[in-house]
Amino acid sequence: MLGTLGDEWTLLILQQATLGATRYGDFAARLPISHAVLTRRLASMTDSGLLEKRIYQENPPRAEYVLTPRGRGLWPVLMSIWEWERHWVPAHAEGLPAMHHATCGCAFAPVLSCRGCGAAATEKDVAAQWGPSGSWARSIPAQSTRRRSASGRGAAGAGLFPETMSILGNRWAFALLVSAFVGTSRFGDFADQLGAPPGSLADRLQIFTGIGVLAAADGRYRLTEKGRATFPILITALQWAQHTFRSPDGLAVDLQHTACGATFEAELTCDQCTGVLRGTEVDVR
After folding, report:
1. pTM, to two decimals
2. How far apart are CA 150 and CA 60, in angstroms?
3. Cis peptide bond prior to 60, omega within 30° of 0
4. Nearest-angstrom CA–CA distance, 205 and 50
5. CA 158, CA 94: separation in Å to the nearest integer?
6. CATH number for region 82-231
7. Residues of CATH 1.10.10.10 domain(s) within the chain?
8. Which residues sit opposite 270 in a β-bridge?
9. What tens digit of pLDDT does each residue of 28-86 get?
10. Fold classified for 2-72
11. Cα–Cα distance between 20 and 66 in angstroms, integer?
12. Is 10 helix (H, G, I), strand (E, B) or coil?
């Protein structure tokens, strides 16, 4: 999942595809992206099964790029990122407009909820343990994604979702944040659990404290309110990954909703009408 999504341009192209862009010119007009980068990302996203390339004109040849079921399944992740950046990153490069729910007509915020009982869920309500195919070692990509600067923003990135990419754009960052959610707080415990090089771990901790996701005190690094608010991003990304990259051994992570005792399957609901959200029912303006 991190190898597929740990790139800002990929997320932005997915966002625009979800909003209706299909042709090369659509993406080029909507994003501050070079032609070389756009061409490479469209090719890699087609190879990874997020987009399907369809020829709509033979002479001269013209193609469109349509979301596959795998690509469409990422809308909860994109919506969670959008809401977190809109709410928690006041210095965002461009103001993000509100999302409107077509069913009730209201501007809304998505609420992470339990599909089994319908109740809203936070990190305090969900218990996680490794499944048959899960471990820290197996959950970290063998190679790092694009190196980030100390601010968490890559020199070649769009800079539109800089703080989100400080989480998704590095193989150690996502794992470190998950580790913080399950109670790890000391440098040595992070290092032992993740197997991360000390320099990489120190760099990620510095970035997370710098953007206010973690707070350092008494030799510990603890999640702030802003950090806890990333929970919907982590859960929707994990859920997409477990549905998309299935292991014959079983799930990597087992989640349980402690409030109802059922296996936790996440869904997003509207905070205004409480209805279940669907990607086709959300308007951004």
Report:
1. 0.89
2. 45
3. yes
4. 31
5. 11
6. 1.10.10.10
7. 2-72, 82-231
8. 110
9. 999 999 999 999 999 999 999 999 999 988 888 889 999 999 999 999 999 999 899 98
10. Arc Repressor Mutant, subunit A (1.10.10)
11. 9
12. helix
